[in-house]
Amino acid sequence: MHCLIFASVHVNHRRSVQTPGIPHLDQDDWSQSSGSSTVCHKCCAAGRSLSASTRVPIAQMSFVPIRAIHASGIRLSDVIVVKGPEFAESISEGDIRWIKKVGDFVNEDELVAEIETDKTSVEVPAPQAGTIVELLVEDGAKVVAKQEIYKLQPGSAPAGVREIPKSPPAVSRPPPRPMTSTPVASIPVQRITVPSGSTPEVAITGAREEIRVKMNRMRLRIASRLKDAQNTYAMLTTFNEIDMSNIIEMRARYQKDFMKKHGVKLGLMSPFVRAAAYALQESPVVNAVIDENEIIYRHFVDMSIAVATPKGLVVPVLRNVESMNYAQIEKELAALGEKARDNKLAVEDMEGGTFTISNGGVFGSVFGTPIINPPQSAILGMHGIFDTPVAINGKVEIRPIMKVALTYDHRLIDGREAVTFLRKIKSAVEIRPIMKVALTYDHRLIDGREAVTFLRKIKSAVEDPRTILMNL
Predict the structure, then answer these.
(1) Are residues 251 and 366 in the same domain?
(2) 10 and 87, same domain (yes or no)
(3) CATH number at residue 89
């Protein structure tokens, strides 16, 4: 720790300087030692010594106003120890991945590290601006909730730290050099002949190498859960085909009106989510789960929707789907999908599902058998839509057909129940349901013609898809 002395341009004037954090200095605090160097009594009294390089020569009989600057290293008393975030109850630990290193300056809320858990990645932002002075755990090490992970020296950015320009400056191209060789047009053309049998044989082989990469924690957890499901459940899969003509026509006809009213597009997932919610309420055993020697029936539908991310498959949950309309489902799907792609899903977003839908059709899947998502009892797999010849009223027509698969736990769900459940989904997607309604009226006031007209207006309003899409 040194006291740096700077000479001013004013001489022969008695002045005193008061700098925050620096002792009050005036002319009486200075004396000359050997030569013409100046010594600070207060610094010397405090046990500080001035090296030769820090002594400032001044003229005899002149007092030079000075300014003292306190330069020091990190004050340990100002260093704060930063703890990791708190995890959900179902998560005990995670693997830390450092994004910043010792000596890096970080702004408040800037990302310092990520903790990868079994289900998601938890971000570790800086609590305030400062410089990282020590990492308390190694990269890739296991950490628990609220563990001390690094030390931070609060403060503003150093003078040398500048914002990186968004785009590099344009580099001027050097002017073309004048042509010094003979133009191509003036080079005489000669036929090149190669003696027969002299062509060397060249082995065409690609680079043969192996790269060993450590599996991240999420991928390990996915592998473990899927293998546990395979070992635990008596999984069986049943299949069916769905004619998507009505859904495709409905989307084409009412997409603009739906978008204008609700601010979100009408996709293919919301009809299947609604159809599955209806079928689950009609077949409660598919929505149930085995817990040791008991069966737990859930009278609510929390739908898990499989979403592919660069780090692996995640399954955020739509809560209480049975009470949601098309617009609410589409908005929730859009919000959860964006959070999944940005790696911002919380653990709470992926817990508690009762049934899962996986849409492999977005990747062009033709057919497949999904694996149950523990601890649920069934999963619906959607696949691609392809023009397929089908028999309609004795004639062959080309229809957009989607193959669907239902994998279920045969310990709990019988084959009849599984097939019936899948047929209910097929019917709900393909055909609008028919409901009989009755109107009882006071005939002293209302004529039969008026009653019939009133009921027909209700029928028209309910049967019009716009009524369902815009108001329900």
Answers:
(1) yes
(2) no
(3) 2.40.50.100
Beta strands 142-144; 111-116: pairing state: unpaired
- Region 175-179: what's the mean pLDDT? 48
Instruction: Please give the average per-residue pLDDT across 437-455, as a whole number.
Output: 88
- Give the DSSP H/E element, type plus range, for residue 459: helix 448-463
Q: What SS3 state is found at 189?
A: coil
Positions marked active-site: 410, 414
> Residue 393 corresponds to which tokens in the numbers above?
């009223």
**Phi then psi dihedrals of residue 77, to 5 deg:** -70, -20
Q: What is the mean pLDDT of residues 410-438?
A: 86
Q: Categorize the per-residue pLDDT at 207 as very low, low, confident or very high, splitting at 50, 70 and 90.
A: confident
**What ranges in 263-394 are assigned the alpha helix state H?**
269-282, 326-341
Q: Are residues 236 and 380 in the same domain?
A: yes
Q: Do 367 and 411 belong to one domain?
A: yes
Considering all CA atoms of the chain, what is the largest pairwise distance in Å, rounded to the nearest integer?
125
Residue 323 counted as domain residue: yes
Does the residue 251 lie in any domain? yes
Residue-range definition of the domain harbouring residue 138: 80-142
Phi/psi for 267 (5° steps) reads -95, -170
Q: CA-to-CA distance for 344 and 332, rounded, in angstroms?
A: 15
What's the average model confidence in pLDDT over 359-372? Answer: 92
Q: Are residues 448 and 402 in the same domain?
A: no
Number of other CB atoms surrounding residue 186 within 10 Å:
7
Count of structural domains, the chain: 4
pTM: 0.59
pLDDT at 187 over 80: no
Mean per-residue pLDDT over the chain, rounded: 78
- Both tokens of 45, joined, read 């009294």
> Any idea which residue has 């919301």 for tokens?
270
**Polymer length of the chain:** 472
Do the Cβ atoms of 305 and 338 come closer than 8 Å? no
Same domain membership, residue 440 and residue 334: no
Are 396 and 374 in the same domain?
yes
Question: CB under 8 Å, gap of 24 or more: what pairs does 322-326 form?
Answer: 322/277, 322/278, 322/280, 322/281, 324/273, 324/274, 324/277, 325/472, 326/258, 326/266, 326/270, 326/271, 326/274, 326/468, 326/469, 326/472
Q: Identify the weakest region by mean pLDDT among 154-158, 301-305, 397-401.
A: 154-158
In a domain? residue 137? yes
Shared-domain flag, residues 420 and 441: no
